[in-house]
TrEMBL record:
Bilayer disposition of the protein: Multi-pass membrane protein
Protein name as annotated: Facilitated trehalose transporter Tret1-2 homolog
Source species taxonomy: Eukaryota, Metazoa, Ecdysozoa, Arthropoda, Hexapoda
Boundaries of every Major facilitator superfamily (MFS) profile domain copy: 19-450
Gene: LOC106748621
SUPFAM superfamilies: MFS general substrate transporter
Keyword terms: Cell membrane, Membrane, Sugar transport, Transmembrane, Transmembrane helix, Transport
Classification via PANTHER family: AT22075P-RELATED, PTHR48021
The keyword Nucleotide-binding is assigned to this record: no
Matches recorded under Pfam families: Sugar_tr
Subcellular location: Cell membrane
GO cellular component, one term: plasma membrane
GO MF annotation list: sugar transmembrane transporter activity
Length: 487
C-alpha cells in the first residue's frame, strides 16, 4: 500500500496569530462592556448612585443586560449582509464608532436613559463583533490552526470581563469609561497595519492587493501565496453564483443543511441555558454561603481569573481534543457542578449544618467556569464556521445567532422569577437537567469537525460515507473561509 505523505506545514502562523490578536482587541472591548455591570450595578442601586436622582430598582438593573441582548438580536439580522459586501477592515473601523459613543455617553451620563442607550450600543458592538471577528479570522487562517485562532475570541472576551472587574474596583464609573476609550483607539491604530482579507479582495477583483495580503500572511513565501490565490480564484465564481441566489427556503433544501441549522441553533441555546449567567450573577451569593471573607468585587475577580484560565486551556486543546469531545466533557462537568451546588443549597435551605463544607460550592463554581470555557464557551462559535455549505453559511448562522441573543434575553429576565418559584437549589437542579439534555443533544447530532474540510462534514450530515480526511486536505487560506460564519 502506498503511504501518503503528510501535508507540509503552512508558513505564516505567527503573522496570522498577530493579526488575530489585533482584531480581538475589539472583542476585548466588548468584554469590558459585559464586565462593567458587575462592579457598578450595586452602585447604581445605592443611595449615592453616580447616575440619576434616585437608585435603580432590581427590575431596572435587569434591563441593563436585557437591552443589550435585545439590541444584539435586532442588529444581528441587519449586519448579516455587511461583511460580504463591504471591506472587513472598513467594517472593523465602523465598529469603533458605537464603542466610542457608548463610553462617551457613560462619561457624561446624568440620567438612567443615558446608561440604557449606552447598553443598547454595547449590544450593537457585541453583534458586530460576533459577525466581524470570526469571518476575518477564518479568512486569514490556515485550516490546521483555524480552531486555535478562532478560540481566541472567547479568551479576549474573558480577558475584557476580568479587566472590567479589576478596573471597576479601582475607579469611579466616569473614570472607568474614560480609561476604556483607549480600547477602540488602540484597535483602530493597530488594525490599520493588518492585511485585508484575501478572500474579500479576490471577490472585489483586486488581485494584486490579494496577492500582497497573502504574501504577508504567508510570511513572505511567494510560492505558497500564489498557490493559495489560484485556489481562491478558482472557487470564487461558483461560490458567488450560489450566494447571490440563496433564499430562506435553501435552509431546508437537504438533510445536511437542516441538520446543520438544528445543530447551530441548538448549540447556541444550550450555551445560554447551561447556567453561565446564573453562575456569574450569583457568584457573590455562593461565596457568602460558603462563609468566604472575600468582598463581592474580589470574588468576581477570582472567578474572572478562573474563566480566563479556562479560555487559555480551551485554546490549547481545541485542535488536539476536538470540538465534539470538549463539548461532551463540558456538558458532563457543568451538570455535576450544578448538582453539587444545588445539593449544598438544598441542605442549607432545610437547616442542615453545612458550615464545614463551605469550600464545596466555591470549588464547584470554579470547576464550572473552567469546563464551560473548555467546551460550551468557545466550541459553538467555531463549529458554526465549519458545518454548512458555503452558500448558506451566512443566512444559517444569522438565524443561530438571533436564537443566542433571544435565549440570553430570556435567561436574564426569567431567572430571578425562577428562583422565587423553585428556590435556589431548585434552579441549580434545573440547570443540571439542561446540561444533561445538552449532552444528549451533542452526542446524538454533533459530528467531529476538527481538521476536516467543509465538504467532508456536509457529506456526513447528509448521511454519505466520508472519504476525505485531514491528510487529504490542503491546508491553505480560503479553502473553508468563503462566507465563513459571522458569529
Amino acid at each position: 500500500m502506498e503511504k501518503r505523505e503528510k501535508p507540509p506545514s503552512e508558513p505564516g502562523k505567527w503573522r496570522q496569530f498577530l493579526a488575530v490578536m489585533v482584531v480581538n482587541l475589539s472583542t476585548m472591548t466588548y468584554g469590558l462592556m459585559v464586565g462593567w455591570q458587575s462592579p457598578y450595578g450595586p452602585q447604581l442601586q445605592s443611595s449615592s448612585s453616580p447616575v440619576g436622582n434616585e437608585p435603580m430598582t432590581d427590575e431596572a438593573v435587569s434591563w441593563l443586560s436585557g437591552i443589550t441582548c435585545l439590541a444584539g438580536g435586532l442588529v444581528t439580522g441587519l449586519l448579516s449582509v455587511i461583511p460580504d459586501k463591504y471591506s472587513r477592515k472598513r467594517f472593523g473601523y465602523l465598529l469603533t464608532l458605537p464603542m466610542v459613543i457608548s463610553w462617551v455617553l457613560i462619561i457624561f451620563a446624568t440620567e438612567h436613559i443615558h446608561i440604557y442607550i449606552a447598553r443598547f450600543l454595547h449590544g450593537v458592538v457585541g453583534a458586530g463583533t460576533f459577525f466581524f471577528v470570526p469571518v476575518y479570522v477564518s479568512e486569514i487562517s490556515n485550516d490546521n490552526i483555524r480552531g486555535l485562532l478562532g478560540s481566541l475570541l472567547m479568551f479576549a472576551i474573558n480577558f475584557g470581563i476580568l479587566l472590567g472587574y479589576v478596573l471597576g474596583g479601582m475607579f469611579s464609573l466616569s473614570v472607568f469609561a474614560i480609561i476604556n476609550l483607549a480600547g477602540p483607539v488602540l484597535f483602530l491604530v493597530t488594525f490599520a497595519f493588518m492585511p485585508e482579507s484575501p478572500v474579500y479582495l479576490v471577490r472585489q477583483n483586486r488581485i494584486r492587493e490579494a496577492a500582497r495580503s497573502l504574501k504577508w500572511l504567508k510570511d513572505g513565501d511567494g510560492l505558497v501565496a500564489e498557490r493559495t490565490l489560484s485556489y481562491i480564484q478558482a472557487n470564487m465564481k461558483q461560490a458567488d453564483t450560489a450566494t447571490r441566489s440563496v433564499k430562506l427556503s435553501d435552509l431546508f433544501r437537504d438533510r445536511a443543511t437542516i441538520k446543520g441549522l438544528i445543530i447551530v441553533t441548538g448549540l447556541f441555546i444550550c450555551q445560554q441555558f447551561c447556567g453561565i449567567f446564573a453562575m456569574i450573577t450569583y457568584t457573590e451569593t455562593i461565596f457568602e454561603a460558603s462563609g468566604s471573607s472575600l468582598s463581592p468585587n474580589a470574588a468576581s475577580v477570582v472567578i474572572g481569573t478562573i474563566q480566563l484560565f479556562g479560555a487559555c486551556l480551551a485554546s490549547s486543546l481545541m485542535e488536539r481534543a476536538g470540538r465534539r469531545s470538549l463539548l461532551l466533557i463540558s456538558c458532563v462537568g457543568m451538570c455535576l457542578c450544578h448538582c453539587v451546588i444545588g445539593g449544598y443549597c438544598y441542605f442549607q435551605e432545610f437547616g442542615y449544618n453545612v458550615t464545614a463544607y463551605g469550600w464545596v460550592p466555591v470549588t464547584a463554581l470554579s470547576v464550572f467556569m473552567i469546563v464551560y470555557c473548555l467546551g460550551m464557551g468557545a466550541a459553538p462559535i467555531i463549529v458554526t464556521t465549519e458545518i454548512f455549505s458555503r452558500d448558506v453559511t451566512s443566512l444559517a448562522t444569522t438565524i443561530g445567532l438571533c436564537c443566542l441573543w433571544l435565549a440570553a434575553f430570556v435567561i436574564v429576565k426569567v431567572f430571578a422569577q425562577l428562583i422565587a418559584l423553585l428556590g435556589m437549589y431548585g434552579c441549580f437542579f434545573l440547570l443540571a437537567l439542561c446540561c444533561a439534555l445538552s449532552f444528549i443533544f451533542c452526542f446524538a447530532l454533533l459530528p467531529e469537525t476538527k481538521g476536516r474540510i467543509r465538504e467532508d462534514i456536509v457529506d456526513e450530515l447528509n448521511g454519505k460515507r466520508c472519504t476525505k480526511s485531514e491528510k487529504d486536505a490542503k491546508h491553505i487560506i480560503g479553502m473553508d473561509s468563503e462566507h465563513a460564519a459571522h458569529v
